Amino acid sequence: MPFRNYRTRPLAQNAPFPTDEITRLLDMARDPATGLSLAAEGQVQSCSLDNGRLLLTLAIPRDKAEALSALCPAASRQLETLPGVTVATIMLTAHRPAGAPKQAAQPQGHRPLGGTAPTEGPLLPGVKAVIAVASGKGGVGKSTTAVNLAVGLGMEGLKVGLLDADIHGPSLHRMLGMQGKPEVVDGRLQPVQAWGITAMSLGMLVDEKAAMIWRGPMVMGAVNQLLGDVDWGTPDVLVVDLPPGTGDVQLSLIQKTSLAGAVIVSTPQDIALIDARRAVSMFEKVHVPVLGLIENMSYFCCPNCGHTTELFGHGGARQEAEAMDVPFLGEVPLLADIRASGDSGVPVVIGAPDSEGGRAWRKIAHTLARSLRAGRKA
Ligand SMILES: Nc1ncnc2c1ncn2[C@@H]1O[C@H](COP(=O)(O)OP(=O)(O)OP(=O)(O)O)[C@@H](O)[C@H]1O
Predict the structure, then answer these.
(1) Are residues 171 and 227 located together in one domain of the fold?
(2) Residues 60 and 186 in one domain
(3) How many whole angstroms from 139 Cα to the centroid of ligand 1?
(4) Are residues 301 and 370 in the same domain?
(5) Is 184 in contact with 89 (CB distance < 8 Å)?
(6) Who is most buried in 32, 309, 330, 365, counting CB within 10 A?
(7) Name one GO biological process term (predicted).
């Protein structure tokens, strides 16, 4: 079994990952009827050990996903015989079988992390509302917005979950200051508590460099698992931070959950607004209500003299929202404090709730909370 891109963390003291031993143990959980095994079919994407919790991510052929996921519980038990391992979790992501023709991207059925049987049907049955935070263009502050909105909704008294579905660049765990690996209880990943909400990011589970090169089906497999295999409980709202653009993750999320709506983040720059328009139009085409547009990095306010500069122009998102007939939710300035809060893991709505940035996001969270409570569009 090829071991590529795995993180070398000692399993037992000072020992490297015993790759041959892992392969041998996975092979012991072979299906006697078909001869299939995770060792023969899987490619290791990442492998890590933290406080006795082993997390192994395997890429498997898409057409064997169901048969192989059924082997996960037995394979996990085998891995738990390794020294230093108390709980082993196997996460499966799918890839196209070699030589198979490319197909239009389609989300796959939900495949469990080691422990439970495959399930069908809509994911997130206990979640009352799912809100996507999206942007057409990268780097406009979508993740920063998702974090501050989610925590802001929590401050409004709602029970909130936050999912980082930005598979190619997960960052929420850092913005929330989350460390270590999530717990696994009864084969289900437990979201981590931070600042009054619960959150889960792929960045806590796999090697980020490995995830960066994942292609369509693997990305969608990972999203399905983050939705279906995490014990989200019964939050009032699950905020999902999407990757920029209109690709596989957006498609998977739309097909696998019933989205209550999408919030689009843009800077006032023309180029970002053109992409924001594309994002709005994608959600409208699939009948997902656009809850509104947020203008981030709206203007720069000098912390020394208070002078305001409109670095990327100003007011473009408000005009765009009017032109597209979607609500304008508000503008957030470009502030050094906001950048610093993202790096320090303390969201600005917590660290500086009365700063300009803190006030702006709390106001938007208030508007969204009101509309969620009223069960109607903001
Ligand atoms: N209003 C703001 N003021 C200052 N810095 C900001 C602001 N919004 C975001 N940033 C900073 O800009 C950078 C990019 O933000 P963020 O990661 O939220 O963008 P993104 O749109 O999610 O990016 P990606 O496309 O990579 O997912 C981060 O360093 C963040 O701290």
Answers:
(1) yes
(2) no
(3) 5
(4) yes
(5) yes
(6) 365
(7) iron-sulfur cluster assembly
Structure tokens at 164: 């980082």
Task: Name the token pair of 330.
Answer: 């508000």
- What are the backbone angles phi and psi of residue 249, rounded to the nearest 5°? -65, -40
Q: CATH number for the domain including 51?
A: 3.30.300.130
Distance from residue 334's CA to the centre of ligand 1 (Å):
10
What CATH number should be reported for the domain holding residue 351? 3.40.50.300
Kind of pairing, strands 259-266 and 197-201? unpaired
Question: What are 169-217's pLDDT values in tens digits?
Answer: 788 989 999 887 788 887 788 999 999 999 998 888 766 665 555 556 6
pLDDT tens per residue, range 235-274: 999 999 998 887 777 877 777 787 889 999 999 887 778 8
Would you say 358 is a known binding-site residue? no
Domain assignment of residue 315, yes or no: yes
Q: Is 138 annotated as a binding residue?
A: yes
Where does ligand 1 bind, in terms of residues with CB under 6 Å? 135, 138-144, 166, 169, 171, 244, 296-297, 332, 334-335, 338-339, 342
> Residue 349's closest CA among 234, 197, 199?
197
57: containing domain: 19-95
User: What is the Å distance from ligand 1's center to 81 Cα?
Assistant: 43
**What tokens appear for 16 in the block?**
């490297």
Atom of ligand 1 nearest to the CA of 265: 21
371 assigned ligand-binding residue: no
On whether both 187 and 315 belong to a single domain, the answer is yes
Total domain count, the chain: 2
23, part of any domain: yes
